[in-house]
Design a protein that fits this description.
With 390 residues, the chain is an alpha/beta fold. It has two domains: 193 residues, NAD(P)-binding Rossmann-like Domain (Rossmann fold), CATH 3.40.50.720; 184 residues, 3-Layer(aba) Sandwich (Rossmann fold), CATH 3.40.50.720. It is built from 14 helices and 15 strands.
Length: 390
């Protein structure tokens, strides 16, 4: 099969979906790989390395006309959605259930192309092997970024490195993969910590997947852990109101669950309770969702102020470690790309539950039930939609 690798055109997106050493494996597997010039340059991978691996440089239009499978990192931008054709496969992060406009999705759907979203490829567990590694990086980098913004806006170091320095108080809301990785960064700084989570009894088990055991044992008794209650939003918001005046950095890493019916968890008016020049990082970067004042930006250094609180909500945080992120995602994508090319995309999707769960557009239809419900569009099961290609 012919696999096309595109250069990202989204603002401040420096990653690449496949690195040269994995391209070599794809070609050895009997495929042809064509790549857009400079696709890996910003991540530290030169055109020369791709050519040495056996790939052929081509322009974007040639790749769209020729490739059976197109691999990239981010949702197609600009004129890209118009370039897909019937039966062609897009394999990428798509996030059409989130902030991304359905305008591009509609063009892909109407073309008859098949779109498989990295974030919805799901193994048993459930495990999301193409989402989890980027979530881990997001937690680490977003935590470091919050400390950097704090230093710039308050001319202070957040951590406790001197008896003369009062450490900052950081509140983490939601201790999933992102929050747990951020916790590791924050604990190494010696800050004061408050954790708000709906399952406090399992926090230690989750934390120890990312935080060194010695560090957790030394400082866990100094962490204030507070249970949130999704079934009683009023009570949870009151808890937050009581804590916010003490918080220097609010690190928001919770995600909306289907049973959480409130419009926001952090209302814009609640920000007035926080200290002047305090920091709010929405690591999930979901526009006006659980955090009313959150507006995502592709610019890695964009910071804005609402009610005296500095906000950061970058929607592709791992790009700030583009070399590491590219290597990690390339390794994760490789086995699925091999399945798609070995038996052909249709058979691979039908035979591989993880790929069928990740297929969100096929046969001129939307085929991911959660996305369809959230965006209020018609849903057709993927196996029904794939009949259009036979």
């Amino acid at each position: 099969m012919i696999i096309g690798l595109l250069k990202e055109i989204k603002t401040d997106e420096f990653r690449v979906a496949l690195i040269p050493e994995d391209v070599k494996k794809i070609i050895r597997n009997g495929n042809e790989l064509i790549f857009e010039l400079n696709c890996g340059e910003m991540a530290g991978y030169s055109d020369r390395e791709y050519i040495k691996a056996g790939a052929k440089p081509k322009d974007k239009d040639f790749i769209f006309r020729t490739a059976d499978i197109i691999v990239k990192l981010k949702t197609p931008q600009g004129s890209e959605p118009e370039k897909f054709s019937k039966g062609q496969v897009l394999f990428s992060y798509l996030h059409y259930d989130g902030n991304e406009s359905l305008e591009g999705a509609e063009k892909i759907r109407m073309s008859g192309a098949i779109a498989i979203a990295f974030e919805w490829v799901e193994e048993k567990g459930p495990e999301y092997p193409l989402l989890k590694p980027m979530s881990e990086l997001t937690g680490i980098i977003a935590a470091i970024k919050s400390l950097e913004i704090f230093r710039k806006k308050q001319a202070r170091i957040a951590g406790c490195f001197s008896n003369s320095i009062e450490p900052a108080t950081i509140m983490i809301i939601g201790l999933g993969t992102i929050g747990s990785n951020a916790l590791d960064v924050f604990m190494h700084q010696g800050v004061k910590l408050i954790i708000i989570d709906k399952h406090p009894d399992s926090i230690e088990d989750r934390a120890l997947k990312h935080v060194p055991k010695y560090l957790w044992g030394e400082f866990k008794d100094n962490i204030k852990i507070i249970k949130s209650d999704e079934d009683n939003v009023i009570k949870t918001k009151e808890i937050l109101r009581n804590q916010l005046p003490n918080v220097d950095i609010l690190f928001f890493s919770a995600v909306r669950r289907p049973n959480f019916r409130a419009k926001h968890l952090i209302d814009e008016d609640m920000l007035k309770l926080m200290k002047e020049n305090s920091i709010l990082v929405d690591a999930g970067a979901n526009d006006k969702d659980l955090v009313e004042s959150s507006l995502s930006s592709p610019e890695v250094d964009n910071v804005y102020n609402v009610n005296g609180v500095w906000h950061y909500a970058n929607d592709h945080i791992p790009t700030m470690a583009a070399n590491d992120a590219s290597r990690i995602i390339s390794k994760a994508v490789l086995p699925y790309l091999m399945k798609l090319s070995n038996t052909g995309p249709i058979n691979a999707i039908l035979e591989t539950p993880a790929l069928s769960k990740g297929t969100i557009i096929a046969g001129y239809n939307y085929t991911h039930e959660y996305t369809c419900k959230k965006r209020e569009v018609a849903y057709l099961p993927v196996w029904e939609a794939l009949k259009h290609y036979k």
